[in-house]
């Protein structure tokens, strides 16, 4: 069978666009297929901002990958000539023993990542928005090198550069079917069957539809975000306010990203809850945000950051794809020789996109990677 492509990448959201970018720059004949258009708002990679941080509370094993990703973000910015990462810092708040506070300190100590501890009694003089915070916070931590990245623009920057390096991209085409056959892989989209040596699947919330063979129970959840317009707009600006991740009593944490003038998405402080979304399916998710959901965001934000409280003036719905243990999946699909999947990014994957793309490109090229990503392999989760 003659192969048209070295590698086909299915799904050009965060991870797929990064894989296409790396492969094209390595001189591979790469075809990227996306069912919608680049930077679309129907998956998991829209909403104008994604927090980037390094003292990783989810697990310190992620830190070397984050450090590599940071270098790659800088390279993407350089090649595109566009500012994608804004280092306004991230403020964490919680009780000493919480997953967030204990986890940030652990990763910071292990990997020498600068963080600053701030006594809650002093937070007002440092970050006035959080003075009089009424969550039960025992300690604030501030990570100055952290911040946020622009997801839609980052995806477009990677895909534009991939095209400049010879990648062929098909947008508005859904892959209906794929299978390994002989020495290659067949992928059918838009009535055409493409042949490749290797296949990378990066389908986000559509993983269950495209890759049942991974045999892991993934759950998509509907995540609502709101943009708060503070009563004094300048006080919510990234010049004076950091991104934040605040634990709440008996509730999931809340996160937020300050306003930035060149955002290109709704203006205001973007606020959401990390982890309490309702289960949903990618093609039937309810994309209408209810008034009570906006009220919940306003009330929680007013408790955490009374200095910039205000009303939700824009909102959006997005999806997490959750694995049973909250960690990503990057691996060959069981029973396959030439097909690799990256999925289950559990609401914290965007900051890793460039390094995930690099791991995927390595796996497609040689079947292995030197990057320390073994802890993300499927074997830890597989059902009998
Ligand atoms: C509200 C919210 C806030 C978040 N905040 C952060 C944060 O602050 N920091 C952070 O690091 N992460 C954050 N995340 C998580 C991060 O955005 C995701 O982990 C990441 O975007 C997932 O990327 P992906 O490539 O797996 O999915 P996507 O970017 O959704 O890409 C999957 C793509 O595959 C395409 N596709 C699927 N099936 C097919 C098919 N059959 N044919 C063709 N194309 C197909 C889809 O259309 C889609 O474009 C957040 C997520 C949400 C929802």
Give structural notes:
The chain is α+β, with helices and mostly antiparallel strands and 384 residues long. The protein has 2 domains: 5-46 and 152-215 and 325-380, FAD/NAD(P)-binding domain; 89-147 and 219-322, D-Amino Acid Oxidase, subunit A, domain 2 (D-Amino Acid Oxidase, Chain A, domain 2, 2-Layer Sandwich), CATH 3.30.9.10. The protein has 8 helices and 20 strands. It has helices at 14-25, 63-80, 99-111, 123-126, 151-164, 207-210, 291-304, 353-366; strands at residues 5-10, 30-34, 50-52, 85-86, 90-94, 116-118, 139-143, 147-149, 168-171, 175-181, 184-189, 192-201, 219-230, 243-248, 251-257, 269-273, 278-279, 310-322, 329-332, 339-343. The strands form 3 sheets. Strands 5, 6, 7, 13, 14, 15, 16, 17 and 18 form a 9-stranded mixed sheet that branches. Strands 1, 2, 9, 10, 11, 12, 19 and 20 form an 8-stranded mixed sheet that branches. It has a 3-stranded antiparallel sheet with strand order 3-8-4. Strand 14 and strand 15 form a beta hairpin. Helix 2 packs across helix 8. The longest helix has 18 residues, at 63-80. It is globular. The structure holds flavin-adenine dinucleotide (FAD). The site of flavin-adenine dinucleotide has 37 residues, from helix 1, strand 2, strand 3, strand 13 and strand 18. Flavin-adenine dinucleotide is lined by residues 10-16, 33-36, 43-45, 47, 50-51, 174-175, 202-206, 210, 223, 225, 272, 318-320, 345, 347-351.
């Amino acid at each position: 069978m003659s192969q048209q492509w070295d590698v086909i990448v299915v799904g050009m959201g965060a991870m797929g666009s990064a894989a296409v970018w790396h492969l094209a720059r390595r001189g591979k004949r790469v075809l990227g297929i996306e069912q919608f258009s680049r930077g679309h708002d129907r998956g998991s990679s829209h909403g104008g901002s994604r927090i980037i941080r390094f003292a990783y509370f989810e697990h310190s094993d992620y830190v070397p990958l984050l450090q590599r990703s940071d270098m790659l973000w800088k390279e993407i910015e350089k090649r595109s000539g566009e500012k994608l990462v804004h280092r306004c810092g991230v403020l964490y708040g919680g009780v000493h023993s919480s997953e967030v506070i204990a986890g940030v300190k652990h990763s910071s100590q292990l990997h020498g990542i600068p963080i600053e501890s701030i006594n809650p009694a002093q937070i007002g003089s440092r970050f006035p928005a959080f003075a009089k915070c009424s969550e039960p916070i025992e300690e604030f931590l501030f990570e100055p090198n952290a911040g946020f990245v622009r997801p839609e623009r980052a995806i477009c920057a990677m895909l534009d550069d991939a095209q400049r390096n010879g990648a062929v991209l098909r947008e508005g085409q859904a892959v209906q079917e794929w299978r390994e056959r002989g020495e290659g892989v067949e992928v059918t989209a838009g009535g055409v069957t493409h042949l490749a040596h290797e296949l990378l699947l990066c389908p986000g919330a559509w993983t269950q539809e495209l890759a049942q063979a991974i045999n892991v129970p993934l759950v998509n959840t509907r995540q609502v975000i709101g943009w708060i317009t503070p009563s004094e707009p300048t006080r919510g600006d990234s010049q004076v306010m950091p991104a934040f991740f605040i634990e709440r009593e008996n509730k999931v944490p809340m996160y937020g990203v300050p306003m930035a003038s060149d955002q290109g998405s709704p203006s205001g402080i973007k606020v959401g809850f990390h982890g309490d979304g309702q289960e949903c399916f990618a093609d039937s998710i309810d994309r209408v945000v209810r008034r009570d959901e906006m009220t919940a965001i306003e009330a929680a934000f007013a408790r955490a950051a009374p200095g910039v409280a205000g009303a939700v003036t824009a909102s959006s719905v997005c999806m997490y794809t959750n694995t049973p243990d909250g960690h990503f999946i990057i691996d060959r699909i069981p029973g396959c020789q030439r097909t690799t999947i990256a999925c289950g990014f559990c609401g914290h994957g965007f900051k890793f996109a460039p390094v995930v793309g690099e791991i995927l490109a390595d796996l497609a090229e040689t079947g292995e990677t030197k990057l320390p990503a073994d802890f993300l392999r499927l074997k830890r989760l597989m059902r009998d």
